[in-house]
Amino acid sequence: MESNIFWNSYTFMLLVLCSGAAAYDALDPKGNITIKWDLISWTPDGYVAVVTMNNFQMYRPITSPGWTLGWTWAKNEVIWAMMGAQATDQGDCSKFRGNIPHSCEKKPAIVDLLPNTPYNQQIANCCTGGVMASMGKDPSAALSAFQISVGSAGNTNTTVKLPKNFTLVAPGGGYTCGPAKIIRPTRFVTNDGLRVTQAMMTWRVICSYSQLLASPKPTCCVSLSSFHNASITPCPSCSCGCHNSSNCVRKTPSGKGVNVRKAELQCTKHMCPINVHWHVKSNYNKYWSVKMTITNFNYRFNYTQWTLIVQHPNLNNATQVSSFSYKPLMPNLSTNDTALFYGRKSYNDVLMQAGPKGNVHSDLTLEKDGKTIALFPRRVYFNGNLCVMPSPDSYPFLPSSAGTR
Ligand SMILES: *[C@@H]1O[C@H](CO)[C@@H](O)[C@H](O)[C@H]1NC(C)=O
Ligand SMILES: *[C@@H]1O[C@H](CO)[C@@H](O)[C@H](O)[C@H]1NC(C)=O
Ligand SMILES: *[C@@H]1O[C@H](CO)[C@@H](O)[C@H](O)[C@H]1NC(C)=O
Ligand SMILES: *[C@@H]1O[C@H](CO)[C@@H](O)[C@H](O)[C@H]1NC(C)=O
Ligand SMILES: *[C@@H]1O[C@H](CO)[C@@H](O)[C@H](O)[C@H]1NC(C)=O
Ligand SMILES: *[C@@H]1O[C@H](CO)[C@@H](O)[C@H](O)[C@H]1NC(C)=O
Ligand SMILES: *[C@@H]1O[C@H](CO)[C@@H](O)[C@H](O)[C@H]1NC(C)=O
Ligand SMILES: *[C@@H]1O[C@H](CO)[C@@H](O)[C@H](O)[C@H]1NC(C)=O
Ligand SMILES: *[C@@H]1O[C@H](CO)[C@@H](O)[C@H](O)[C@H]1NC(C)=O
C-alpha cells in the first residue's frame, strides 16, 4: 500500500520532470517574469521609460548576484541616462560630441545597482543588487524597476520601435523571453488616490523558466532518516552528477574547501549543490515531529531569498514550524498537501555558502489526519527546482509496530 503511493508519486515526478521542457510547472502554472516598459514622456529624440520587472513566480526567486536584462535595439538607439540600474558596457559612442550617452551598445546588458547606491540615482523598487523574492514569499520584494532615457529613437507612438530579442540571465539560468507586445497604457494612481495619469505607451515582455533549460541535471537531492532506525538513507549517488578528481573540492577540518578557485562544489556522492534532509524525530498518536535541514555544498554561492516546497500528506496542517516561515499552498492540484517554507529576514533568509554556516534548519510538528500514513515527503523543491528523492525501497524501514509512542 505504502510503496504504491510512493511509486505513483515517483511516476508523477518523472512526468513533472519531462513537462519541465515545455516550461510548464504543475505547482505554478502561471509563473513567469513580466517586464513592462511604460513610456512616461517623449523627448526631442526619443523617450523616457520606467521598466518594471515583476517576478510572478510563486516560489522561484532571483538570487544574488541578481538579474541581467538584455535586448537588441531595433534601430540605432542609444541610452542617454539610467536611474536605478546601469548598462555594463558603454560601447562605441565615438560619433557623439559634447553629451556622451550612457551606452551606445546595440545589445545592451543592464544590471541593477547595489542597495548602498546614492539616493539621487535610485528610483522606487530599484537597487537590490538584482535580487528579487518570489511572489509566494514576499510580493513587495518580487519586483525590480529602473528608468531609462532612450535617444536616436522614435518619439511618437507610431515611429517608436520596440526592442527585440529580450534576454533575462539569472544565476542558474533557464529563462527565455518572448517578443515585446504593445498593451493598453498603464494607468498610475497618485498616492492620495485623487489623480490618475497614464503612460504614453506601454509594452511588455514575458519571460518563462524551464528547469531542463537551466540544467539538464538536477541541482538538489533529499536524504531521509528516522528515530526508529539509526541508518540514514542518503541521496542517490550521482543525483546531480558524479564526482571525479577535478570537479569538486574536498572538505577540510576547518570546514573551508581547499582549491576553491578550481571547483566550487564540495565533494559528495550525490554532487548536488543543495541537500534537504528530512529527519523524523518522533511519532505520537496525533502528531509527527520532523527536523528539516537544508545544506549548501557550493563554496561560491549564497542563496538569497531561498524557498523550499514540500509535499507531504500532513502539511496542510503544520501546527508548529520553528525558525522558517510557513505557508500552505493551494496549487491547482487535487490535493492540498503542499507547503512553502522560506527564511526569516536577516535571520536565515540567506543560505550561506558551503562551510560551517552553510545550512538552515527547522523543526516541524505535523498533525496526522488519521487517513494517510507517510513518514517522508512525496516531493521537495528547492527554489522551484525538483529535488531527487531516494528510491522508495531504500527508505528507512518502518517496523510493523509503526513506532507509535
Ligand atoms: C504571467 O503571469 C501573470 C501573473 O500571474 C499572468 O496573469 C499571465 O497570464 C502570465 N502569462 C503567461 C504567458 O503565463
Ligand atoms: C497613438 O496615439 C494616438 C493618439 O495620439 C492614439 O489614438 C493611438 O491609440 C495610439 N496608439 C498606440 C498604439 O498607443
Ligand atoms: C534575434 O534572435 C534570433 C534568433 O536568435 C536571430 O535570428 C535574429 O537575427 C535576432 N534579431 C536581432 C534583431 O538581433
Ligand atoms: C570530471 O567531471 C567533469 C564534469 O562532471 C568533466 O567535465 C571532467 O572532464 C571530468 N574530469 C575527469 C578527470 O574525469
Ligand atoms: C556570502 O555571504 C557572506 C556574508 O555576507 C560573504 O562574506 C561571502 O563572501 C558571500 N559569498 C559569496 C560566494 O558571495
Ligand atoms: C488543523 O489543525 C487545527 C489545530 O490543531 C485543527 O483544529 C484542525 O481541525 C486541523 N484541520 C485539519 C483539516 O486537519
Ligand atoms: C485548475 O482546476 C480547474 C478545476 O479543477 C480546471 O478546470 C482547470 O483546467 C485547472 N487549471 C490548470 C491550469 O490546471
Ligand atoms: C483542501 O483544503 C480545503 C480547506 O482547508 C478543504 O476544504 C478541502 O477539502 C481540501 N481538499 C483536499 C483534497 O484535501
Ligand atoms: C533500518 O533500515 C535499513 C534500511 O532500510 C534496514 O536494512 C534495517 O533492517 C533497518 N533496521 C531496523 C532495526 O529496523
Folded structure, characterized:
With 405 residues, the chain is mainly β. The chain has two domains: 25-209, Immunoglobulin-like (Sandwich), CATH 2.60.40; 213-402, Immunoglobulin-like (Sandwich). It contains two helices and 26 strands. The chain has helices spanning 2-19, 211-214, and strands at 33-43, 46-55, 68-72, 78-83, 85-87, 109-112, 143-151, 164-169, 175-177, 181-183, 187-189, 196-198, 201-209, 220-226, 229-233, 274-283, 287-296, 303-304, 307-311, 318-321, 324-329, 338-343, 350-351, 359-367, 379-382, 385-386. The strands form six sheets. Strands 1, 2, 4, 7, 9, 10 and 13 form a seven-stranded antiparallel beta sheet that branches. A six-stranded mixed beta sheet has the order 15-14-16-17-24-20, with no helix packed on it. A five-stranded antiparallel beta sheet has the order 21-22-19-25-26. The longest helix has 18 residues, at 2-19. It is elongated, with a radius of gyration of 24 Å. The two termini are 23 Å apart. Mean pLDDT is 87; it is low at 1-23 and 401-405. One 2-acetamido-2-deoxy-beta-D-glucopyranose is lined by residues 72, 164-165.
Summarize the structure.
This protein is mainly β.
**Termini gap:** 23 Å
Give every kind of bound small molecule, once each: 2-acetamido-2-deoxy-beta-D-glucopyranose
Give the C-level CATH assignment of the largest domain. Answer: Mainly Beta
Secondary-structure arrangement, i.e. CATH architecture of the largest domain? Sandwich
Principal-axis shape equals elongated
- Taking all Cα atoms into account, the compactness measure Rg is 24 Å
**Structure class:** mainly beta
The tally of structural domains comes to 2
Count of DSSP-assigned helices: 2
Uncertain segments of ≥5 residues (pLDDT<50)?
Answer: 1-23, 401-405
Could you describe the largest sheet, including whether it forms a barrel?
7 strands, antiparallel
> Beta fraction of the residues?
35-45%
Helix percentage range: under 10%
Quote the CATH topology of the largest domain: Immunoglobulin-like
**Mean pLDDT over the residues:** 87
**Sequence of secondary-structure elements:** HEEEEEEEEEEEEEHEEEEEEEEEEEEE
Quaternary structure type: single chain
Count of beta strands? 26
